[in-house]
Design goal:
The chain has about 900 residues and is an all-alpha fold. Helices cover about 75% and strands about 0% of the residues.
Length: about 900
C-alpha cells in the first residue's frame, strides 16, 4: 500500500484500528502463555514492529489513546503475572532479558498515549512504567537500556510542576527515579553525573523517614565504594559523600516526628558517624573524630564499644593526654570491649604519651586485673610497651624502669605468670626485664639496673634447671653493687685536663685548640680525653675549641677504637654549638653532610640507634636541616638552602626498626622545597639551568610525586595532611621543568591529572591550568582538555550547579577537540555533545542557557556536512541525530527541529533508494 492510498481519514483510522488489533492479539497470546518456560523473542519483536508502525500514524484520537492505554496495562499485568509465577518456581529467574523486553514494549506503548485526557496524572503513570522497566534492566546489568528508560522517565517528569504534586506515590517516584538513574550512572563510571543526580534528589524530599533513609543510604554506599578502591584521589570525595549522608539523616530526624519512623534513621546516622569517625582517624583529622564521638554519645542510649577507642586515639592525636587518660580509664569498666582491643588501646596511648604515661598505664592495667580475667599474653604486651627502648639511659628511661619495677612485682601479675601454662610468657617477661637492666648497666645507671635485675629474678623458677640462670643474675647484681660503692673516675688524664683548662679560662683559643690537636700523640691517649676537652670548652663558653675537639673526636669512630659516646651524639652536639652563631651556615652544612655520609656508610639503625631513641635522633637531624633550609631561604641564600633541604629529605627518609620509608610527609616536602630553591637560585643568578641540572631536579620531584600519588596503605595519609601550598608548588615546579625538555607532554598530563585528584585542588586552579596549557608556544592541549573536563565535573557535582559556567566550559571543550581532533569518526567530540545532552536531560526549561544549547545543536548538525561530502553516511547520520536530540531540549527551535526531521527523513529515503 502506498502512502497516497491512506491519505483519507477513513483509511487512516482503519489502519490504526488494525494495528491495535494486532497488538491486542499478541497480548492475548502472552496472557495465555504458560509460566515456567522461557519466553520466545517473537513476542517482543512483533510488538516492537507493530508499535513502530502505529507511531508513524500519529496523531491519535483520545478514544484510541484510551484503548492504547488499556492495551499497555494488559501487557504490563501479563508480565507481572509471569514474573510472580517464576519467582515462586524453584530454579527460575524472576526476570530475564525477554521479560524485560516485554516490559519495555509496554512502557513504549503507553508513551504513545501519554497525553491522554480523562486519566489523572498520565505523565507520572507513564514515567512509572519506564522507571520500573529501567530497574529490571539495571538488575540484568544492561545499563545502557536502563539509562534509556530512566532518561525517558526524567523527560516526562521534567514537564511536571512538582510543587503541585500531592500524591505520595507520585512524589516518591521523583526521588526513586533520581536515585535509580544515579546508580546506573555510577555503574558506567559516570561518577559526576551520579553525584549530581543525588544532589537533585534533595530537592524532592518530603516528610517520610524511608525517603531520607533511601537517599542517605545511597550516599553512604557510594562513599564506601570510593574508599574500598583504596585510591588516594577518592578519599576526599568519599568523605564528602558520607557527610552528605549524615546531613540527610539529620534533616530527616528534624522532619519525621513519629518515634517508630525515626529508629531506622537514627541507626543509619550512628552507622555513618562511626564510619566517618574511623575514616577521620586514619587521616589524622582528630577534631572531626571527636565531633563524631560526641554526637554518638549524646544521641545513642547503647554506647558502641568502639567509641572510647576512637575518642582516646583522637585526644592523643591532639596532645590532650589528660582527656585520653579519662577515655582509657573509662574503657576499664566497659565489659563490652574485647581484651585485644583494650591492650591495643593501651599500646597506642603509651606510644604517644611515652614515659609520662607509664604510671597511668600501670594503674589502669592493675585496675583491669582487679575487674576481670586478663591473659598472660596481654600482661607481656603491656610490660613490653612500657619498657620501650632503654638504650642510652636518661630520665625517661629511668621513669619507665620505675613503673615496670612496680608493675612486675605486683602480686596479681606474679600470680598470673607463675602458673604451669604460662612458662612461655614467664620466660619472655624475664628476657624483657634482663635486657632492660643490661641497657641501664651499660649507661652507668647502676641503681636502676640493680632494681630491674632483682625484679627479673622473680620470674626465674626455683627448680634445678634454672640454677645457671639464677647464678648469672646473682653475679650481675654483685657487679652493680660493687660499682655503686666505689668512685668511678679515671685518673690518667687529670694532668692533661688541668693544663687544657688553663687555656680555656684565659680565653686563649688558639693555644687550647693546639693542645687539643696534640692529645692523640700522648702515650696514654684515649678518646675520652677529647670528650672531656669538649665538655670543658662548652662549660667555659669557648665554642671554637669545643668545635675543634668534637671534629677531631669524629675521626676516631671509623678506626674501631672504644668511644666515650655514640657518634650521632657528637654530631648533634657539634651542630648545636655551630647553630649558636648565625654566620655558621656553611660550617653547619659541612657537618650535616659529614653526618649524612656516615649514615650511608653505617645504616640508619647503626648511626642513629634503634627504637624510639633512634627515631628521636633521626628527627633531630631532620628538623635542624629543615630549619636551616628555611633560614637560608629567607636570607636568599638559595644554593645553600637547596642543599639543606636535600639533606633534610635524606634524614627524614632514614628508616628505623620496621619503618619502610621514614617520615614520608617531610621527605616529600623537603624534596619540593629543594627544587623550589634550585629554581629560585637560577632566577637570582639569571643563569639558565643546564639540561642535566633540569633532569636532576625532575628526578627529585619524581620522588616526591611517587609519595604523593601512590595508592598504597602507608602513603594514604600524605595528601590529607600535606599543606595545599606544597602540592601547588610541586605542581608548578614540575610543570616548569618539564616544559624545558622535549617529548614530556605525557609527564605534564600525568602531573596535572594527579594534581586535579588532590583535595588541595579547586576549580579555579584547574581553569587556570586549562587556559595556560592551551596557549603559548609550549602549549599542551591534552592537559588543557583534561583540566577543563575535570573542572566541568567539579561544577556538576555541586548541589546547585552554575549551568552558565558549565555551558561555557562545554563550549571551550568542543572548540579544543574540534581544533585538535580528526574530521570524522571523532568519538571524543561526539562524547562531549553526548555529555551536554545528558546534563540537559531532566532540567527545567531554560535552566541550561538557551543560546549555548542552540549553539550545541547547530554545531552538532553542521558537523554532518563533512562526512556527507566524503561519503561517510553513517557518521553523517550520527551527527544529524545528535543535533536533532539537542534541538529537542531547546525552547524556540521548533522550526529548526521540523526542518531537521524532514531532512533526516529525506536523507534516509535517499540512502534506502541507493
Amino acid at each position: 500500500m502506498k502512502i497516497d492510498d491512506i491519505s483519507s481519514p477513513e483509511l487512516h483510522d482503519d489502519l490504526q484500528t488494525q494495528l491495535c488489533s494486532q497488538i491486542e492479539s499478541s497480548i492475548k497470546d502472552i496472557e495465555k502463555y504458560a509460566p515456567g518456560t522461557a519466553l520466545p523473542d517473537s513476542f517482543s519483536t512483533h510488538l516492537r514492529r507493530t508499535i513502530s508502525q502505529l507511531n508513524s500514524l500519529s496523531p491519535f484520537s483520545n478514544s484510541l489513546k484510551l484503548h492504547i492505554w488499556k492495551l499497555s496495562y494488559r501487557l504490563w499485568n501479563a508480565c507481572v503475572d509471569l514474573s510472580n509465577a517464576n519467582a515462586n518456581a524453584a530454579g527460575l529467574k524472576k526476570h530475564h532479558e525477554e521479560h524485560a523486553k516485554l516490559r519495555q514494549v509496554s512502557a513504549d506503548l503507553l508513551f504513545l498515549a501519554a497525553d491522554v485526557s480523562g486519566i489523572p496524572s498520565p505523565a507520572f503513570k507513564c514515567a512509572s512504567f519506564f522507571y520500573k522497566t529501567g530497574l529490571i534492566w539495571h538488575d540484568l546489568r544492561k545499563f545502557e537500556l536502563a539509562n534509556y528508560c530512566f532518561e525517558k522517565a526524567s523527560d516526562l517528569l521534567s514537564k511536571v510542576d512538582i510543587t503541585n504534586v500531592s500524591e505520595y506515590e507520585e512524589k516518591k517516584l521523583l526521588l526513586d527515579l533520581n536515585i535509580a538513574r544515579s546508580r546506573t550512572a555510577w555503574e558506567v563510571s559516570d561518577r559526576n553525573l551520579a553525584i549530581a543526580l543525588l544532589s537533585r534528589s534533595k530537592n524532592v524530599l518530603f516528610a517520610f523517614a524511608e525517603n531520607y533513609k533511601a537517599l542517605a543510604n545511597q550516599y553512604l554506599m557510594f562513599g564506601k565504594a570510593m574508599l574500598s578502591k583504596n585510591e588516594v584521589s577518592g578519599v576526599n570525595e568519599a568523605l564528602k559523600l558520607m557527610n552528605d549522608a549524615l546531613e540527610l539523616c539529620e534533616r530527616g530526624l528534624t522532619v519525621v516526628k513519629r518515634t517508630a519512623e525515626t529508629l531506622t534513621l537514627k541507626e543509619l546516622r550512628s552507622k555513618t558517624l562511626r564510619f566517618l569517625g574511623a575514616s577521620h582517624l586514619q587521616r589524622d583529622e582528630f577534631e572531626s573524630v571527636l565531633k563524631c564521638v560526641k554526637v554518638l554519645r549524646d544521641g545513642d542510649k547503647d554506647q558502641h564499644p568502639s567509641l572510647s577507642v576512637l575518642a582516646m586515639k583522637a585526644w592523643l592525636g591532639l596532645g590532650r593526654f589528660g582527656e585520653a587518660e579519662k577515655e582509657l580509664r573509662r574503657m576499664v569498666v566497659d565489659k563490652g570491649i574485647p581484651e585485644g582491643v583494650w591492650v591495643s588501646a593501651v599500646e597506642s596511648y603509651f606510644q604517644v604519651v611515652g614515659a609520662a604515661g607509664a604510671p597511668v598505664v600501670k594503674g589502669v592495667f592493675l585496675g583491669l586485673l582487679g575487674r576481670c580475667h586478663v591473659s598472660a599474653d596481654a600482661a607481656i604486651r603491656v610490660v613490653n610497651k612500657v619498657i620501650g627502648d632503654p638504650a642510652g639511659g636518661g630520665e625517661e628511661a629511668r621513669l619507665r624502669a620505675k613503673v615496670v619495677s612496680d608493675l612486675v612485682s605486683d602480686d596479681r601479675i606474679l600470680t598470673l605468670l607463675n602458673g604451669h601454662n604460662a612458662s612461655k610468657e614467664r620466660t619472655a617477661m624475664h628476657a624483657f626485664l634482663w635486657n632492660c637492666a643490661a641497657e641501664h648497666f651499660r649507661s652507668k645507671d647502676l641503681q636502676t639496673s640493680a632494681d630491674i635485675f632483682e625484679k627479673s629474678m622473680l620470674y626465674v623458677p626455683s627448680d634445678i634447671e634454672s640454677r645457671n640462670l639464677r647464678a648469672k643474675g646473682f653475679r650481675v647484681l654483685c657487679l652493680c653493687y660493687m660499682g655503686l660503692s666505689q668512685l668511678d673516675r679515671a685518673q690518667e688524664y687529670i694532668n692533661e685536663a688541668e693544663k687544657y683548662k688553663i687555656y680555656l679560662q684565659k680565653k686563649e683559643l688558639n693555644g687550647a685548640i693546639t693542645q687539643v690537636q696534640a692529645l692523640p700523640s700522648c702515650l696514654d691517649f684515649t678518646t675520652e680525653f677529647l670528650s672531656l676537652a669538649a665538655h670543658e670548652a662548652i662549660a667555659c663558653r669557648c665554642l671554637p675549641v669545643a668545635v675543634a675537639s668534637l671534629s677531631l673526636l669524629l675521626n676516631f669512630y671509623s678506626t674501631g677504637k672504644q668511644m666515650p659516646t655514640t657518634e650521632v651524639v657528637v654530631f648533634r652536639t657539634l651542630v648545636t654549638i655551630l647553630s649558636q652563631d648565625s654566620q655558621n651556615d656553611s660550617d653547619i652544612l659541612k657537618q650535616m653532610k659529614r653526618a649524612h655520609s656516615r649514615l650511608r656508610e653505617m645504616s640508619a639503625e647503626n648511626f642513629f640507634g634503634k627504637g624510639e631513641i633512634g627515631r628521636r635522633e633521626r628527627n633531630w637531624f631532620s628538623v635542624n636541616a629543615w630549619n636551616s633550609g628555611v633560614k637560608t631561604g629567607q636570607e636568599n641564600q638559595y644554593a645553600i638552602c637547596a642543599e639543606f633541604f636535600r639533606l633534610a629529605s635524606e634524614f627524614y627518609g632514614a628508616s628505623i626498626d620496621e619503618e619502610k620509608e621514614g617520615n614520608h610527609v617531610m621527605v616529600c616536602k623537603s624534596l619540593i622545597m629543594t627544587v623550589s630553591a634550585i629554581i629560585s637560585d637560577e632566577k637570582l643568578r639569571t643563569n639558565t639551568l643546564l639540561e642535566n641540572e633540569v633532569k636532576e631536579a625532575i628526578s627529585l620531584l619524581d620522588r616526591a610525586g611517587k609519595m604523593l600519588m601512590s595508592s598504597s596503605t602507608e602513603y594514604d595519609k600524605l595528601e590529607a595532611i600535606i599543606e595545599p601550598n606544597f602540592l601547588f608548588v610541586y605542581t608548578w615546579c614540575a610543570f616548569d621543568l618539564h616544559s624545558r625538555l622535549d617529548n614530556t607532554g605525557s609527564q605534564q598530563f600525568l602531573l596535572i591529572k594527579r594534581f586535579a585528584n588532590s583535595k588541595c585542588c579547586n576549580p579555579s586552579h584547574l581553569l587556570q591550568i586549562g587556559i595556560n596549557a592551551s596557549q603559548g608556544p609550549s602549549s599542551n592541549h591534552e592537559v588543557a582538555i583534561f583540566a577543563l573536563s575535570t573542572c566541568l565535573s567539579t561544577f556538576l557535582a555541586l548541589p546547585l550547579p552554575d549551568y552558565a559556567s558549565v555551558a561555557q566550559i562545554v563550549r571551550k571543550l568542543v572548540s579544543l577537540r574540534s581544533i585538535h581532533g580528526t574530521d570524522t569518526n571523532d568519538d571524543a567530540k561526539m562524547e562531549t555533545y553526548k555529555q551536554a545532552y545528558r546534563i540537559m536531560v531532566g532540567l527545567k526549561e531554560g535552566e541550561y542557557p538557551v543560546e549555548e544549547a542552540k549553539w550545541l545543536a547547530m554545531t552538532a548538525w553542521n558537523r554532518a556536512a563533512v562526512p556527507v561530502r566524503m561519503g561517510h553516511m553513517d557518521e553523517a547520520k550520527r551527527w544529524m541525530s545528535m543535533g536533532l536530540e539537542l534541538a529537542k531540549k531547546v525552547p524556540g527551535m521548533q522550526t529548526y527541529r521540523s526542518c531537521m526531521e524532514d531532512f533526516i527523513a529525506g536523507f534516509e529515503k535517499k540512502l534506502s533508494g541507493a
